[in-house]
Design a protein that fits this description.
The complex is a heterotrimer of chains A (100), B (165) and C (348). Chain A is mainly alpha-helical and 100 residues long. Chain A has three helices and one strand. The termini of chain A are far apart. Classes of the chains: A mainly alpha (100), B mainly alpha (165), C mainly alpha (348). Chains A and B meet through strand 1, helix 1, helix 2 and helix 3 of A and helix 1, helix 2, helix 3, helix 4 and strand 1 of B.
Chain lengths: 100, 165, 348
């Protein structure tokens, strides 16, 4: 038996690590993976709250987050491939212009 | 038992996330993210969310991250280089992120009295419970998500295909 | 029951099942060599031991004693990790398979390592993670044949996984449970007439599953991964000795797992084809061993079919494989789901 707040703290730490990765990473794919890490961290707190309040809808929300994450990954990776094709780099410092 | 399982898999998740930050090569980062996701699946099991635990493995580890590894292998871009931007982000980012973490943690700890305790096997949400809510109360959002995924597939194909002259 | 007894029993079961499973893998290889030999009008291995029965042990010793080469161009951490992932996923999936009758000892099933609520989903999850082994092996080998082979096979596995998963939905709809022991016990009553393939009306689903399973395990006629004439050896070109043997064992382990799933979901699992016509034997040991015998016999028939198909059909072309999977198999699997749900809804 452990308090729910432990799960929430773990989720907060993982989310913060995701934010840190988003800020310091320079490869576009790793930046994108940091976003996925943040989504996962938020999912953990959703499940914890769903368990705490005996609410199934909290888990359904995680289910929807997963589906949207799948859609986001498909489109995001297609954009990454398109960027790599025109710029030959994935360094976020070199692809910060909308026009080339 | 519960405590041991929680501590082990929380530690694995944190180690994976830290490895994601430290690794230079994107494919190592992707693999450490898979480790994080798998250990989160075990934590979902401890919280009684069976279906989500296995959906986490199938959807995240088995589908989304496969897509990531495929793209990393396809582009084969190599290790990331350090730039001016990354130094600025480190200098400004880490203090900001620490402040942010302290803020969230203080909020959680201050409201700890309102939160319950997790007892293993106390409230298990079976797949039947989940699907009853999903297909009775939330059918419309579910259908809308399927349309969203269809649009995403079309968008991905349109973006990634080569221009035909 | 105390937690330590639970841990001890689980450990004993896991070790025993792993050993039997690995022996099964070794002898499936021998069975394949013998059978394909007979199909091609030659003898197959028959020198080591009576009827060549010791051949797998000698093969194992050979691959264990060979020099362990690591080519200089490989990306070492992933090159070493990939065979472990492949073999690990192949061994993991047997953990949820109930291979014998529902006998319990101290409240634990004897003939299943664990009997979890979502066993079927667990199997699908493990298969979906198994793709990493092959994908990483091909990429980290830094060799164009390996990369082509692994890209082919991962794309093939990801595409056919959909048809594979959807073909099982009909069975799940009919049972109303994802627990594998529930799915089996639903089919025990009337023998062969209540098996999902006949009585459950899942005849087409079984064939969709069969074809998708052949593709999912990269076996002939879908074995483009190791098409020798185009790709040398496929994703395992750069591997030698024990690491190659691990990929090899993973392939045959996956074959056995797929056979177990087909047995449980469509062929009535450990139940006898005669159902309750024959009264259960009085002796408790025979009562325990008869279901085990039926399960092994059914898996053996499935493996026999696998090898027979390999000895008979030529290899597909890659575009044929992809268009078959997406244009025919997937829509058929969806039609099966619609048909099964309509049938279940109309039936009183």
């Amino acid at each position: 038996m452990i308090p729910s707040s432990w799960y929430l703290i773990l989720s907060a730490v993982l989310f913060t690590m995701g934010v840190a990765g988003f800020l310091i990473k320079r490869s576009l794919i790793t930046v994108f993976m940091s976003i996925e890490l943040m989504l996962n961290a938020v999912n953990l707190s959703f499940v914890t709250f769903a368990h705490d309040w005996h609410a199934v809808k909290g888990q359904i929300f995680v289910f929807f987050v997963m589906m949207v994450a799948a859609a986001e990954a498909a489109v995001g990776l297609a954009i990454i491939i398109a960027i790599f094709r025109t710029r030959q780099t994935l360094n976020v410092d070199q692809i910060d212009l909308m026009k080339f | 038992m519960h405590l041991a399982l929680f501590l082990i898999f929380a530690a694995v998740a944190l180690a994976g996330a830290a490895n994601l930050l430290l690794q230079k090569h994107p494919i190592n980062a992707a693999l450490s993210l898979i480790v994080v996701m798998s250990s989160l699946a075990v934590l979902y099991l401890l919280l009684g969310a069976e279906f989500l635990a296995i959906a986490q493995i199938i959807v995240y580890a088995g589908a989304i991250m496969v897509l990531f590894t495929f793209v990393i292998m396809l582009l084969n871009e190599g290790v990331e280089e350090k730039t001016h931007g990354s130094r600025v982000a480190k200098l400004l980012g880490f203090p900001a992120v620490t402040v942010f973490l302290a803020l969230i943690a203080s909020i959680i700890l201050s409201s700890e009295t309102h939160l319950g305790k997790v007892i293993i096997g106390e409230s298990i949400t079976t797949t039947q419970d989940l699907s009853a809510v999903l297909f009775r109360d939330l059918l419309l959002p579910f259908e809308i998500t399927s349309v969203l995924i269809l649009i995403a597939i079309l968008g991905a194909v349109a973006l990634a295909r080569k221009d035909e002259q | 029951m105390s937690i330590w007894l639970f841990l001890l029993l689980s450990l004993v079961k896991a070790v025993l099942v792993t050993i039997v499973f690995l022996m099964g893998v070794a002898y499936t290889v021998l069975l394949e060599r013998k059978l394909v030999g007979r199909i091609q009008n030659r003898w197959g291995p028959n020198r080591v031991g009576p009827f060549g029965l010791l051949q797998p042990l000698v093969d194992g010793a050979k691959s264990f004693l060979k020099e362990d080469m690591i080519p200089s161009g490989v990306y070492k951490p992933l090159y070493l990790l990939a065979p472990l992932i492949s073999l690990g996923c192949a061994l993991l999936s047997i953990a949820v398979v109930p291979f014998g009758g529902p006998m319990t000892w101290h409240g634990m099933r004897i003939f299943a390592i664990s009997d979890i609520n979502f066993g079927l989903l667990f199997l699908l999850g493990v298969t979906s993670v198994g793709v990493y082994g092959i994908a990483l092996a091909g990429w980290s080998s830094n060799n164009k044949y390996s990369l082509l082979g692994s890209m082919r096979s991962s794309a093939q596995m990801v595409s056919y996984e959909l048809a594979l998963g959807l073909s099982l939905v009909g069975v799940v709809l009919r049972t109303g449970s994802l627990r594998l022991s529930d799915i089996v016990s639903m089919q025990t009553v009337h023998g062969i007439a209540s098996w999902n393939i006949f009585g459950g009306g899942q005849f087409f689903a079984f064939f969709i599953y069969l074809i998708a399973a052949f593709a999912e395990t990269n076996r002939s006629p879908f074995d483009l991964v190791e098409a020798e004439s185009e790709l040398t050896g496929g994703y395992n070109t750069e591997y030698s000795s024990m690491k190659f043997a691990m990929f090899f064992m993973a392939e045959y382990g996956n074959m056995i797992t797929v056979g177990c799933v087909a047995t449980m979901l469509f062929l009535g699992g450990w139940s006898s084809p005669l159902g309750d016509l024959i009264p259960p034997p009085q002796n408790i040991i025979i009562q325990a061993l008869v279901p085990l015998f039926w399960f092994v016999a059914k898996v053996f028939c499935f493996l026999f079919l696998y090898i027979w198909v390999r000895g008979t059909l030529p290899r597909f072309r890659y575009d044929q494989l992809m268009s078959f999977g997406w244009k025919y198999l997937l829509p058929l699997a969806m039609l099966n789901i619609v048909g099964t749900s309509l049938w279940l809804a109309i039936r009183p």
